[in-house]
Structure to design on (644 residues):
C-alpha cells in the first residue's frame, strides 16, 4: 500500500525559495490536510507530489519508491482539481473511462468500474451527459469519480470544494471523508479553509510562508498550537493575543489585571486566549469594553477592547446578550486553557 | 428584463457611421451591382454596342468546359491550400505552445510571413523554384526530378499551392495558438495524470477542444484560396502553363481584362460572389454554434 515520505523537500523558482525543507511522514490510509493562507506554497507542495512541478532538492517517496523523476502518470496517483478539470467534450462516462482506456483495460472491466463509481457517487443517471449540463456539485462528483475508478495509491485534492456554495460544501466535505474512510486510500487535501481542515484531516500540516508551522492532529493543533500563527489560524473565531509580563505563575495584562497562568516562565510573552475559553466572572481580571455584538443564536460574540487599552479582544458567551456599546464585561480564564508564546519568535513556550 | 435606454434623436450617430457606409457603398455595393448589371450584357468585339441578354452569359458558362475545368481546379487548389496550411500551422502551434525559452521570439518569427504582400510571396517562390537559377530545382535534380513549372502543369499547380499555403500558415498559426492557450492548463494536467502522453493528449484532448477554431479556419482558408490568391498566381504562373493554374478568380481577370469578354467575366464574378456569400452563411449558421463546451 502507500505511505508517503517527504524528505527535506525544497522548491525554488530561480533564486526564490518558496518551500523550505519540508519534512513529513504520511502513513498508509491517512487523510492529511495541508492548510495555510494564500501563497503559502500548499498547492505547490501538492503539485510536486503529483509530479506537475519539479523538485528542486530533497525527495518524495510514494510506497517506499522515490518518485522525483517519475512522470505524473507513472506515480499511480489521482488528482481532483479546484476547477474540476473535466474534459468538456466527453460525456461523464467517457471522462471517467479515459484513464482506464489508456491503461488498456478490457471494455467490460472499464464499464464495471465506471458503473460502480457512479453508484457510489450517485451520478448514475448523468453518465451520458456532458459536463456543461451538470451543476457544480455534480461536476465535483464526476471529478471524484474519475479519481476513484483508477483505484490509485494516492488521492490528491487541490481545494476541490472552493467553487461550491456554502451548504453544498459542508455536504461534500462529509461525503469526501466517508468515501476516503471507505476506500482507505492515502489522501492529501489542500485547503485554505480551517474548518474544512479540522473536520476532514486525520492530521493537519499547517504551512506558512513555505515553512511547516506544525504537523499534528486537529485536536493537538487546537489544544497546543506550536506558534502564534497556528494558534491564530486554527479555531473560529480566532484566538486573542495580548502582550503580557509573566512572573510567579501570573501574567500581568496590559491594563494592569493579573491572570493566573500555568507556566514557570518569567519575562515578557504573548498570551493567547481563545474566545470560547473566556468565562464570565464579575471579579475577573479581563475587563472588556464592548464595541460590537455578533448574535449567532446559540452564542454571542462580544467584540471589544481591553478596558483602558487599545488591544482588541473577542469573547464568546453562550445564549443571547444585549450589552450596550461601551458597557464593560469582566472575564477570567482557566490557567490550563491559556497559551503562552515567545514574544519575538512567536513559538510556544514550554508550560 | 432591463429597460432599454433611450437617447434623444440626434444626427451624431449617423455622422459617425457615415464614413463606413460610404466606403461600403463606393467600394463594395456599387462595383458589385455594376458586375451584376454587366453580367446581363454582351458587348460586340469592337466595343461599339452592347446588348441586354438576360442570363445568356450564365448559360454559356454552364456549358463551357473550360469554365467547368477551372471550377474543378479551384476545388482541388483550395482544399489542398487549406489542408496544407492548416495542418502545418497546427503542428507549429502544438510545438510553439510547449516552447519555454525564447517563446516570444519563436512566435514572432512565425507570424512574419503574414506581413508579406501576396505578389512578393509569389516572387520569392518564383526565384526559389526558377528552373535555371532556383535552389530547389538544383536539389531536385539530385533526386532525379526535372523541375520546370513553366512547362509542367502539375508542377506549376504544386508551386502555387505551396506558395499560397505558406502565406496562410502564419494566420492559421495565430488562431491555433490562441485556441490552445485558452484550454485550461488543469485539463491538460488531468490528462497527464490519467496517463496520457503528449501525442495522446494532443489528439484526444487538445484537438477536439479546438475544433471550433478548425471549422472557422477551414471557411476562412477556403475563402482565401478562392479569392485572395490572385496575386500569388499572377506573380508565379500567370495561370499557366496553358490553363493549368487558372483558378476561378484568375479566370475572371483573364477573360475580362485580357480576353475582353466583359459580360462573361462579370457573370463569373457574380458566381464567385454567390459562393462567398454561401460560405459566410455556413460560417455564421453552423460553425459559430458548433462549440463543444
Amino acid at each position: 500500500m502507500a505511505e508517503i515520505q517527504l524528505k527535506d523537500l525544497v522548491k525554488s523558482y530561480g533564486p526564490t525559495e518558496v518551500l523550505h525543507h519540508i519534512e513529513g511522514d504520511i502513513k498508509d490510509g491517512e487523510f492529511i490536510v495541508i492548510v495555510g493562507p494564500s501563497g503559502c506554497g500548499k498547492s505547490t507542495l501538492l503539485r510536486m507530489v503529483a509530479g506537475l512541478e519539479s523538485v528542486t532538492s530533497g525527495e518524495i517517496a510514494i510506497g517506499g519508491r522515490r518518485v522525483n523523476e517519475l512522470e505524473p502518470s507513472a506515480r499511480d496517483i489521482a488528482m481532483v482539481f479546484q476547477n474540476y478539470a473535466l474534459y468538456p467534450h466527453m460525456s461523464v462516462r467517457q471522462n471517467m473511462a479515459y484513464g482506464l482506456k489508456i491503461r488498456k483495460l478490457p471494455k467490460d472491466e472499464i464499464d464495471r468500474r465506471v458503473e460502480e463509481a457512479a453508484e457510489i457517487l450517485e451520478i448514475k443517471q448523468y453518465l451520458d451527459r456532458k459536463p456543461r449540463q451538470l451543476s457544480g456539485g455534480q461536476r465535483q462528483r464526476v471529478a471524484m469519480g474519475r479519481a476513484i475508478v483508477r483505484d490509485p495509491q494516492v488521492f490528491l485534492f487541490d481545494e476541490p470544494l472552493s467553487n461550491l456554495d456554502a451548504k453544498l460544501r459542508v455536504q461534500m466535505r462529509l461525503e469526501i471523508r466517508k468515501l476516503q474512510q471507505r476506500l482507505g486510500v492515502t489522501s492529501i487535501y489542500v485547503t485554505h479553509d480551517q474548518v474544512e481542515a479540522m473536520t476532514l484531516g486525520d492530521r493537519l500540516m499547517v504551512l506558512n510562508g513555505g515553512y511547516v508551522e506544525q504537523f499534528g492532529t486537529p485536536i493537538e493543533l487546537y489544544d497546543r498550537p506550536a506558534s502564534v500563527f497556528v494558534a491564530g489560524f486554527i479555531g473560529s473565531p480566532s484566538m486573542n493575543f495580548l502582550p503580557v509580563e509573566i512572573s510567579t505563575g501570573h501574567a500581568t495584562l496590559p491594563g494592569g489585571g493579573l491572570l493566573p497562568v500555568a507556566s514557570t516562565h518569567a519575562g515578557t510573552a504573548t498570551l493567547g486566549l481563545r474566545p470560547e475559553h473566556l468565562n464570565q466572572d464579575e471579579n475577573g481580571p479581563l475587563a472588556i469594553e464592548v464595541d460590537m455584538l455578533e448574535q449567532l443564536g446559540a452564542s454571542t460574540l462580544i467584540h471589544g477592547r481591553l478596558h483602558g487599552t487599545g488591544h482588541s479582544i473577542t469573547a464568546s458567551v453562550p445564549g443571547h446578550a444585549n450589552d450596550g456599546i461601551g458597557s464593560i464585561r469582566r472575564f477570567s480564564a482557566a490557567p490550563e486553557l491559556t497559551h503562552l508564546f515567545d514574544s519575538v519568535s512567536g513559538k510556544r513556550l514550554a508550560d | 428584463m432591463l429597460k432599454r435606454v433611450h437617447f434623444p434623436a440626434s444626427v451624431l450617430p449617423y455622422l459617425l457611421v457615415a464614413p463606413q457606409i460610404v466606403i461600403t457603398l463606393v467600394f463594395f455595393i456599387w462595383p458589385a451591382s455594376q458586375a451584376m448589371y454587366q453580367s446581363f450584357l454582351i458587348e460586340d468585339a469592337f466595343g461599339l454596342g452592347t446588348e441586354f441578354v438576360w442570363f445568356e452569359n450564365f448559360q454559356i458558362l454552364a456549358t463551357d468546359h473550360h469554365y467547368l475545368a477551372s471550377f474543378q481546379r479551384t476545388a482541388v487548389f483550395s482544399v489542398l491550400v487549406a489542408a496544407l496550411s492548416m495542418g502545418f500551422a497546427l503542428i507549429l502551434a502544438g510545438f510553439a505552445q510547449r516552447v519555454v525559452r525564447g517563446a516570444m521570439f519563436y512566435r514572432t518569427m512565425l507570424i512574419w510571413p503574414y506581413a508579406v504582400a501576396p505578389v512578393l510571396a509569389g516572387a520569392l517562390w518564383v526565384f526559389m523554384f526558377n528552373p535555371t537559377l532556383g535552389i530547389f530545382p538544383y536539389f531536385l535534380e539530385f533526386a532525379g526530378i526535372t523541375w520546370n513549372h513553366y512547362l509542367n502543369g502539375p508542377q506549376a499547380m504544386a508551386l502555387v499551392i505551396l506558395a499560397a499555403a505558406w502565406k496562410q500558415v502564419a494566420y492559421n498559426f495565430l488562431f491555433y495558438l490562441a485556441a490552445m492557450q485558452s484550454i485550461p492548463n488543469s485539463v491538460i494536467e488531468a490528462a497527464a495524470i490519467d496517463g496520457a502522453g503528449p501525442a495522446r493528449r494532443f489528439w484526444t484532448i487538445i484537438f477536439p477542444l479546438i475544433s471550433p477554431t478548425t471549422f472557422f479556419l477551414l471557411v476562412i482558408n477556403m475563402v482565401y484560396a478562392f479569392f485572395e490568391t490572385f496575386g500569388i498566381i499572377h506573380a508565379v504562373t500567370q495561370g499557366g502553363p496553358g490553363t493549368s493554374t487558372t483558378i476561378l478568380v484568375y479566370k475572371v481577370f483573364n477573360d475580362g481584362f485580357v480576353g475582353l469578354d466583359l459580360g462573361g467575366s462579370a457573370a463569373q464574378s457574380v458566381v464567385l460572389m454567390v459562393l462567398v456569400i454561401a460560405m459566410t452563411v455556413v460560417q455564421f449558421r453552423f460553425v459559430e454554434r458548433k462549440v463543444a463546451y
User: Anything to note?
Assistant: The mean pLDDT of chain B is 83. Chain B touches chain A at residues 184, 186-187, 189-197, 200, 204-205, 208-209, 211, 292-293 (CB under 8 Å). The radius of gyration of chain B is 24 Å.
